[in-house]
Design goal:
This protein starts with a helix and ends with a helix. The chain has about 100 residues and is mainly alpha-helical.
């Protein structure tokens, strides 16, 4: 699942809820939820936190597709923070090409 909308849809389906039901849980209209799932718009930070609270899905998974809470991801993040900026830029460029980001 390479987009926020796909991860949001997956999360909703896991709850076996309609877009309308989930939208009500975060005080939004179903049209707005639908736009998020179709990657037409993205939620504000407040809306994203409301989705997190309503679903329990981690913010890092919703946004990035990874769970940074795992020890492997924490170690990777720690190692990345130690790299010089120019090396991080090279790595990000390589990842963008490799994974079509």
């Amino acid at each position: 699942m390479n987009t926020f909308g796909k991860r949001l849809r997956y999360t909703r389906k896991g709850f076996r809820r309609t877009q309308s039901q989930m939208a009500r849980r975060v005080n939004r209209n179903p049209t707005q939820w639908s736009r998020w799932e179709r990657d037409k718009t993205t939620p504000s930070m407040d809306e994203l936190i409301a989705v997190h609270k309503a679903t329990g899905a981690s913010l890092d998974w919703l946004l990035l597709g990874v769970d940074m809470g795992s020890s492997v991801h924490q170690r990777l993040l720690f190692l990345l923070l130690k790299l010089p900026d120019r090396e991080v830029v090279k790595l990000v460029e390589w990842l963008e090409v490799r994974f079509s980001l």
